[in-house]
Fold this sequence. Notes:
It comes from Chryseobacterium contaminans. The chain crosses the membrane at residues 6-24, 67-87, 93-109, 121-137, 143-159, 196-217, 223-242, 254-275. This is HTTM domain-containing protein. There is one protein chain. With 276 residues, the chain is mostly helical. It is 68% helix and 0% strand. It has one domain (5-275). The protein has helices at 5-36, 65-87, 93-112, 119-137, 144-162, 165-169, 171-176, 185-191, 195-211, 219-239, 243-250, 253-263. It starts with a helix and ends in a 13-residue tail after the last helix.
Amino acid sequence: xxxxxxxxxxxxxxxxxxxxxxxxxxxxxxxxxxxxxxxxxxxxxxxxxxxxxxxxxxxxxxxxxxxxxxxxxxxxxxxxxxxxxxxxxxxxxxxxxxxxxxxxxxxxxxxxxxxxxxxxxxxxxxxxxxxxxxxxxxxxxxxxxxxxxxxxxxxxxxxxxxxxxxxxxxxxxxxxxxxxxxxxxxxxxxxxxxxxxxxxxxxxxxxxxxxxxxxxxxxxxxxxxxxxxxxxxxxxxxxxxxxxxxxxxxxxxxxxxxxxxxxxxxxxxxxxxxxx
Length: 276
């Protein structure tokens, strides 16, 4: 199966979100380095620059601070370059080459990281890899793996939450909103200590994550779940400072729609509004 114009539209939407993620992330890291140095406590979703160490002399290059800054600057410029190509609708082998370079940079940054990666970081790397393989093979069925990965992410997170007594009672969400990293004083003040609000919100999140796979059932479910997903991650971005999750997950949503079309054997080149 070869990539057609309509499939490229979905791919372009995804690439725009990925580039925005990498651009904003790079800027934030460089600002932290400039004003706080390499010993600053950066958010848990970043690269944990506060502990620079050398496990082996042969790895000195990997953990070198100047190399890190250079890689992040190049990461910013290449993401900006790809974004420009997409916006200007320039289809070139440079897209594939630039994406391959970004994959190398991301692997370098993760090799340097001492802590486990967040879901958003896993998603960005996986999406870049699948996009590169798609451009290389011209087979867009590879992009179904992105949809599978997103469903696994939602389902596994839902299972973890429903397995936790604190999340089932709403206490987990309450404590999360009071933390320095993800907390929001405005929401806490609005909710007060109302345990029923935290209980309701916790179960809405759990049910959304556990049932997300049902987006494939029919067109109406597809629209409902994708819209709920956008609103869910928009809420997290605004109130819990998780803008990286918003961009990472939304970079995968075009392929969820594609997978829905594939499962129901709906041609990719039709007017999508006719199926609803």
